[in-house]
Design brief:
Elements: H1 3-12, E1 21-23, E2 31-32, E3 38-48, H2 59-76, E4 80-90, H3 95-111, E5 115-123, E6 127-137, E7 152-156, H4 161-169, H5 177-188, H6 194-200, E8 204-209, H7 214-225, E9 228-232, H8 240-245, H9 248-257, E10 264-268, H10 273-280, E11 287-294, E12 300-304, E13 307-308
Parallel strand pairs: 4-5, 9-12
Antiparallel strand pairs: 1-2, 3-6, 4-6, 7-10, 7-11, 8-10, 9-11, 12-13
Helix pairs in contact: 2-3, 2-6, 4-5
Bound molecules: adenosine-5'-diphosphate and magnesium ion (MG).
Residues 7, 11, 25-28, 86, 88, 116, 118-121 line the site of adenosine-5'-diphosphate.
Binding site for Mg(2+) 2: 45, 73
GO molecular function, one term: thiamine-phosphate kinase activity
Catalytic activity: thiamine phosphate + ATP = thiamine diphosphate + ADP
């Protein structure tokens, strides 16, 4: 099968269609319309086989994850997703692989009403680069830089499950049978917190998604906002699967350092706390207060109750 046939069969035919796309796949560029009074939020992520996912990961999961991690970045800005582009590098044309991959892509694009508007298809090592674009009302984008001392630190969902899932799949950890699907899905099929992100626009002072690990991502907010924080390890939200699989201390380690959870980490001022509770009452995801910001620039202190919690270890960094 040739490049143009691949594009037509797997990507053009399976695209969800949006009205703000004047011209989608097939010409030299896509042509799209941005609504008035909205800014465009744009993000790109690359997933490389053997680095970001084991090479034998199901293609449907690879597609899901490629879209989800990008939508998670949009969510962390409070943006509503609209369009994605896909640059796909693969060693050969494996029709079964392409079929599963493009179905995975279709599942997510339809669920989130996002249109695949273009891309590139080349021969090379397995690698997926996805760009996502979304709308956020002018001047309402949630950044990392506007947290203030006194703000409360929150996180959605539970932490560390994806890391536990990876260790389980690679044979380093044992997870009780009834939780195996859950942790594998948390790794392979992360849920971007799109709706929460848009709700937080008027409530949160800063926001980031947890991709590198909690400590690393809290630190990004602290550095950008010139604040410090106390983080309560006794408040970290751990799933039942995590609690049933590991000792408390190991659960904390997963929650603090494992990446890939794609939960939202955000700060809320004392005045906005009531609004957060109201807004989250109807949301399908839990939020947990895990600490508070202070004026000690850039310093993150961990506590267990009132005691200092000694901890060595950081999040994941390439080239380190
Ligand atoms: P060009 O040579 O002008 O860059 P291509 O032959 O690379 O065009 O692509 C033809 C059309 O197919 C373009 O609209 C491009 O955006 C789209 N396209 C190519 N690869 C993909 C892909 N993997 N997913 C979605 N659209 C793609
Ligand atoms: Mg091209």
């Amino acid at each position: 099968m040739k490049e143009f046939d691949i594009i037509a069969r797997y990507f053009k035919e399976r695209s969800h269609v949006r009205r703000d796309v004047q011209l989608g796949i097939g010409d030299d560029c896509a042509v799209v319309n941005v609504p008035q009074n909205q800014s465009l939020a744009v993000t790109t992520d690359t997933l490389v086989g053997g680095v970001h996912f084991p090479n034998d990961t199901p293609p449907r999961a690879i597609a899901h994850k490629a879209v989800a991690v990008n939508l998670s970045d949009l969510a962390a800005m409070g943006a509503e997703p609209a369009w994605i582009s896909l640059s796909l590098s693969m060693p050969d044309v494996d029709e079964h692989w392409l079929d599963e991959f493009s179905l995975g892509l279709q599942e997510l694009t339809e669920y989130y009403s996002v249109q695949l508007i273009g891309g590139d298809t080349v021969k090379g090592p397995l690698s997926i680069t996805l760009t996502a674009q979304g709308f956020v009302p002018k001047d309402q984008a949630l950044t990392r830089a506007k947290a203030k001392p006194g703000d409360w630190l929150y996180v959605t969902g539970t932490l560390g499950d994806a890391g536990l899932g990876l260790d389980m799949l690679q044979g380093r950890m044992d997870v009780p049978p009834k939780h195996r699907n859950f942790v594998a899905n948390r790794l392979n099929y992360p849920t971007p917190r799109v709706l929460v992100g848009t709700v937080l626009r008027r409530i949160a002072s800063s926001c980031i998604d947890v991709s590198d690990g909690l400590i690393a991502d809290v630190q990004h907010i602290l550095n950008a906002s010139h604040c410090g924080a106390v983080l309560q390890v006794d408040k970290l939200p751990l799933s039942e699967a995590m609690r049933d699989s590991v000792l408390a201390e190991q659960g904390i380690r997963y929650a603090l350092t494992a990446g890939d959870d794609y939960e939202l980490l955000f700060t809320v001022s004392e005045e906005q706390k009531g609004n957060l509770d109201l807004a989250m009452a109807t949301a399908s995801v839990s939020v947990t207060c895990i600490g508070q910001l202070n004026g000690v620039q850039g310093k993150l202190e961990l506590r267990d109750g009132k005691e200092r919690y000694a901890f060595e270890g950081k999040g994941y960094q390439h080239f380190s």
